[in-house]
Amino acid sequence: MPIRSVDPRSGVAFGPEFTEADEAEVETAVARAARAQDALGQAGPPAIAAALRAAAEALDAERGDLVALADTETALGTARLAGEVGRTTGQLRAFADLVATGAHLRPAVSVVPGGAPARDVRKINVPVGVVAVFAASNFPFAFSVAGGDTAAALAAGCAVIVKAHYGHPQTSQRVAGILSATLDRVGLPPDTVQLLHGGTTAGQLLVGHPGVAAVGFTGSTAGGRALTDLAARRPAPIPVYAEQGSLNPVVLAPSAFRGPGSRALAAQLGGAVTMGAGQFCTKPGVLLVPADHREEFSRDLIGVLGTAPPAHLLTAKIREQYEQAVATAAATPGVTGWRGGQPGTGFGAAAAVLSCDQPALVAESALREELFGPAVLVVGVRDVGELRAALRVLGGNLTGTVHGDPSDDWTLTALGVLAGQVGRLIYQGVPTGVAVVPAMHHGGPYPASSSARETSVGTDAIHRFLRPLAFQDFPADLLPSALRHLS
Predict the structure, then answer these.
(1) Is residue 30 part of a domain?
(2) Rounded Cα–Cα distance for residues 278 and 224 (Å)
(3) Separation of alpha carbons 97 and 426, rounded Å
(4) What does the pLDDT read at residue 476?
(5) How are beta strands 120-127 and 131-134 bridged, if at all?
(6) In whole angstroms, what separates CA 112 from the centre of its chain?
(7) Domain presence at residue 384
(8) Strand pairing report for 250-252 and 286-290
(9) Is residue 243 annotated as a catalytic residue, yes or no?
């Protein structure tokens, strides 16, 4: 089926048609990537670092045109998208700096006492091979063609095949062209990064191809799980590093209402709920508050969401799924709800504030499904026992946030439970900001991600696409250069 861009503000398709990759195109792309992989191994880290920096410069030079194009495909706004390009090029430069030092290789040497079973063992990280990257819908730059997965895989020395998201095909094509041209200009194969369009079939062909060694994915829990299961059924299974759905629970302890107060908390968290039309993987989705503050806080939150700009979701499918999820949650026993005004064009979506008590959350699985869009669930909790049970039933998440005094029993209970269930804890803030720094961890226990140990943000993301290789009793002239002079 042909793929075309659609303006979320109007629902009108525009621009060229792109065809879904078939088996022959996937086969060709993997063969080209394998040849590029060999060339990357010969080029070495200095050339890769230079290519990453050159790619960042090329994307920055085209920022204005890229932002304008992406805005017509996503309706995310030019200010937000301009910042996202900066984040994307910042990621590329951060990986370039790491690769230039060689620290990611982690070279090590051991002299074996007594010489048995070896005299000298040396270890270094090497690329895993060709990586398939699935672009995200909600970040057309930072988690797409030149985004974090691609940057990490390239930095590791892996060739990359990106499956574009159908929500921004023209932006994806433009970025892929810039990357390929830049790679060619600096002396690396332009096929080091390739782009394929398509849906489920193209994705299955990529993940099932024996020439693909690992997968990076950003999207829904259902999508990530499907790819993980497919990769596990291969004759030679491969890892799928999937960043998936998340509820990102926020606990507002009683002491939080004695401090900033309900209106201030609602303003802070309401802004995070509506940021990007609620289409952030780190959007706060479930707010746990003392039961005697539930009604007041819900009213204050409605006041914030009711004055937010109209929301346009990324695609017709996302809007349909959002409306269905909100309707299902609103119809659940024990839930009351509010819906904002409905924008009249395109993929417009009304904000929603749903509210219930803790027993409903624990009893009804429908209330523990991600609401991908400008909606939030407020849960009234009577005591720390109910709080503990509510958090445990929410399972694995990317983030957990706590507002409250350090001495508050709610604060301590929430931090203790959440530490075992999330990849990042936030104190007195909001989870939507994800800094691209070495200490960042963007992942979490299942279902938030397929591997709680791995991050998709920050320079540690490179280690998903490296594997250790040991050399036993090798002469120096046969060793990789980074191992030759260790002693």
Answers:
(1) yes
(2) 20
(3) 28
(4) 92
(5) unpaired
(6) 42
(7) yes
(8) parallel
(9) yes
One-letter amino acid for residue 2 of the chain: P
Query: How many Cα atoms occupy the beta-carbon half-sphere of 450 within 13 Å?
Result: 26
Band of the pLDDT at 452, cuts 50, 70, 90?
confident
- Asked whether the bond before 406 is cis by omega within 30 degrees of 0, the reply is no
Catalytic annotation present for 281: yes
Does residue 307 form part of some domain?
yes
Strands 375-381 and 397-403: unpaired
What are the pLDDT digits (tens) for 282-338? Answer: 999 999 999 999 999 999 999 999 988 888 999 999 999 999 999 999 999 999 999
For residue 92, what is the domain's CATH number?
3.40.605.10
On whether the CB atoms of residues 410 and 255 are closer than 8 A, the answer is yes
Question: By the 8 A CB rule, do 4 and 169 touch?
Answer: yes
DSSP string, 94-159: HHHHHHHHTGGG--EEEEPGGG-S-SEEEEEEEE---EEEE--SS-TTTTSTTSHHHHHHHHHT--
Helices 45-61 & 23-43 angle (0-180, nearest 10) = 120
Q: Considering Cα of 251, then 257, then 263, then 265, what sign does the dihedral take?
A: negative
Q: How many residues does the chain have?
A: 487
> DSSP character for 277?
G
Rg (CA), the chain: 24
Residue 72 in tokens: 């017509």
Residue 442, domain member (yes or no): no
Pairing of strands 120-127, 108-111: antiparallel
Specify whether the CB–CB gap between 355 and 298 falls below 8 A: yes
The domain in which residue 320 lies consists of 250-427
Instruction: Please identify which of the residues 281, 356, 370, 386 carries the catalytic annotation.
Output: 281
φ/ψ bin of 384: left (φ > 0), alpha (ψ from -120 to 50), beta (otherwise): alpha
Distance CA 361, CA 390 (A): 7
3-state secondary structure (DSSP) of residue 429: coil
Rounded to whole angstroms, how far apart are CA atoms 388 and 417? 7
DSSP, collapsed to helix, strand or coil, labels residue 452 as: coil
Active-site position among 73, 84, 243, 386: 243
pTM of structure: 0.94
- Can you tell me the distance from the alpha carbon of 203 to that of 201, in angstroms, rounded to the nearest whole number? 5
| Total number of domains in the chain | 2
The helix/strand/coil state of 389 is helix
Q: Are residues 257 and 395 in the same domain?
A: yes
CB–CB of 319/349 below 8 Å? yes
Distances (CA, A) of 256 to 95, 164, 289, 386, 410: 39, 43, 10, 18, 10
